[in-house]
Amino acid sequence: MRHPWLLLLASLACASQAAEVYQYIDEHGNRVFTDKPPLHVDAEEVHLPEVNRTQMPAPAARPAGQQEAADDAPAAPPYRQLALTGLPEDGTFRANSGDIQVQVQVQPRLMLQHRLQLLVDGQPHGQPVRSILLRASNLDRGEHSLAVQVLSGERVLQQSATYPITIQRTHVNAPARRRQ
To answer: What pLDDT, on the 0 to 100 scale, is given for residue 101?
Structure first.
């Protein structure tokens, strides 16, 4: 047989045209519908109305520029919460050495392949780590900003809000020190 699909389609087309519905009343007075008329009862053929068919419009094709923009759209951030904690209420650290320590709150837990990178004044400070305890060392006195990024390799996945802080360090030439 050379074209089995053609034969199958032809038989399906004939079968759909031959589908008939019959109705009759049984011995209990119930109306019965069937596709095969019973031999012992006088059944009448039911003529069904044409089936409603709706053509769905083809989706409109987006221009090439819009397609690329949709493909480049950033995925949802992997963490629903990413924030620095352990900061003083007024944002002021009194650290003569310029060393501070902050914690990172991450929800859900940090995935194994991800690292945290502390940003000081928008620049990476130290190496990316898996620990939620981050340290910044030898910060100059004055105002700074802190943030944390989640990295996957070299790629930034998510960044926290920026937190302003102030570092207070004792000045060597402070008037109180000169009297000693």
So the answer is: 93
